[in-house]
């Protein structure tokens, strides 16, 4: 089997991938319908209301991050996902029924958005962690990459289909269609061969997020990565607000909005596939991608027509996913293995927490000054994030003149440091954090690290 699809050798992963793809397509269809309903059916093109809806939907994962992480570690993830998918199915049916009955109001939609957010707060970490239960550890990275490709494939299809369905049959039916897609995931979970699931070790720690915070607070490189992701996430990644208001400005309806979301996914899918090919995630790529996203966003804000704006969105999507995928990989590979899960939990909290802060602001700017001003704000945040990364690289002394090239420069790379010794693995990780804080950059050359360590031991 092709190395890119080696996880498909597992029966459980094949049906999981198919169920997740169908569910993700439905999710993007519903997201498109929900945004369009709030913007055009429940309000008179009120982008602020749309921003509040997004904040309510993405706020619960941030507020409940410690609880949802504990639940995902404590309980059987397969059964947990069946429960969360069932709850999401019922919520979709409820919204669809109220829309078709003509009794949906903005306060009711805000309540449903909050309910979707709470359900997804428990569903998302369990779904991400469940991949390690489905495939062997050696296939885990490949499975995660294929999941990312599946998500972006769904993003390519879902918004366009959702927009067409809104025009053809109405927004209420889109929620019913999405409810049916949840059944695909539930059926996939029921069909899995339970004896082939990989046994997992449950974490015994009770303060994982707090330990991760203490570790990150002593790692300036991770702090810089978090700051860059937060800026872009808060002010630059409000695509539902940008795309829907720009579609209206260009005189297009729900189908035009859905198409813009799908065009954005073309660049996102390309960025995800190229990121998967890189051997190691580097902070410099995060910096460059953030700057590229910012420039592409500023260019898109100046586009005079619908189709030129759509073309610019391809580069916006590419920069966004390249930055997020690389930042995620950098955090994983440059964190101590003993604390990696806790650091990732904090990283996800930063990403999810940026939307409730930035979306209402972006919506207000779009209402007060127009959608182009809101996009300029997001693009400026991307450029600022890149400059913050560059400033830290120069200030930290990691940038040097390259001795082998007359006008070249080189950048020291960071390697993950083990702060729990093998001889005494029971020592609390945070006791060694001060030493991590004092650590300078590690210079990486072409010599194999294993050979270098072996020679030191002689």
UniProtKB/TrEMBL annotation:
Q: Entry's Gene3D superfamilies? A: MFS general substrate transporter like domains
User: Its topology with respect to the membrane?
Assistant: Multi-pass membrane protein
Which GO molecular function terms does the record list?
transmembrane transporter activity
Q: Which SUPFAM superfamilies match?
A: MFS general substrate transporter (SSF103473)
Output the InterPro entries linked to this UniProt entry: MFS_dom, MFS_trans_sf, TM_effector
- List each copy of the Major facilitator superfamily (MFS) profile domain by range: 1-397
Is the keyword Cell membrane assigned to this protein? yes
Compartments it resides in: Cell membrane
Keywords in alphabetical order, please: Cell membrane, Membrane, Transmembrane, Transmembrane helix, Transport
Q: Name one Pfam family in it.
A: MFS_3
Q: What is its main location?
A: membrane
Protein name as annotated: MFS transporter
Taxonomic classification: Bacteria, Bacillati, Actinomycetota, Actinomycetes, Micrococcales
């Amino acid at each position: 089997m092709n190395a890119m699809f080696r996880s498909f050798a597992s029966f459980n992963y094949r049906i999981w991938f198919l169920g997740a793809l169908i569910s993700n397509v439905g999710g993007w269809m519903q997201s498109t319908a929900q945004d369009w309903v709030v913007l055009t059916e429940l309000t008179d093109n009120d982008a602020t209301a749309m921003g509040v809806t997004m904040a309510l939907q993405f706020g619960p994962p941030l507020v409940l991050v410690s609880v949802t992480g504990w639940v995902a570690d404590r309980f059987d993830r397969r059964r947990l996902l069946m429960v969360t998918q069932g709850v999401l199915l019922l919520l979709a049916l409820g919204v669809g029924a109220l829309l078709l009955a003509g009794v949906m109001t903005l306060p009711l939609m805000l309540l449903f958005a909050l309910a979707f957010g709470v359900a997804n707060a428990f569903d998302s970490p369990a779904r991400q962690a469940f991949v390690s239960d489905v495939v062997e550890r050696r296939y885990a990275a490949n499975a995660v990459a294929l999941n990312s490709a599946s998500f972006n494939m769904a993003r390519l299809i879902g918004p366009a289909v959702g927009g067409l369905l809104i025009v053809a049959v109405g927004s209420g039916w889109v929620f019913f269609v999405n409810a049916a897609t949840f059944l695909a995931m539930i059926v996939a979970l029921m069909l899995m061969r339970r004896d082939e699931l990989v046994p997992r070790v449950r974490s015994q720690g009770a303060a994982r997020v707090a330990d991760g915070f203490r570790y990150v607070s002593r790692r300036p490189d991770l702090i810089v990565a978090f700051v860059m992701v937060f800026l872009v996430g808060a002010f630059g990644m409000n695509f539902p607000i940008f795309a829907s208001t720009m579609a209206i400005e260009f005189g297009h309806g729900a189908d035009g909005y859905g198409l813009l979301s799908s065009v954005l996914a073309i660049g996102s899918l390309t960025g995800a596939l190229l990121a998967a090919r890189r051997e190691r995630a580097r902070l410099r790529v995060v910096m460059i991608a953030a700057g590229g996203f910012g420039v592409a966003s500023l260019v898109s804000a100046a586009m005079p027509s619908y189709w030129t704006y759509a073309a610019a969105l391809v580069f916006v999507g590419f920069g966004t996913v390249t930055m997020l995928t690389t930042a995620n990989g950098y955090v994983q590979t440059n964190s101590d293995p003993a604390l990696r899960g806790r650091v990732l939990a904090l990283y996800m909290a930063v990403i999810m927490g940026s939307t409730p802060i930035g979306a209402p602001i972006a919506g207000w700017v779009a209402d007060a000054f127009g959608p182009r001003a809101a996009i300029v704000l997001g693009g400026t945040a991307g450029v600022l994030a890149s400059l913050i990364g560059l400033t830290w690289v120069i200030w930290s002394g990691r940038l040097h003149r390259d001795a082998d090239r007359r006008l070249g420069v080189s950048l020291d790379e960071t390697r993950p440091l083990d702060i729990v010794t093998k001889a005494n693995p029971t020592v609390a990780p945070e006791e060694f954090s001060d030493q991590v804080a004092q650590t300078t950059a590690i210079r990486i050359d072409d010599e194999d690290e294993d050979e270098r360590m072996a020679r030191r031991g002689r």
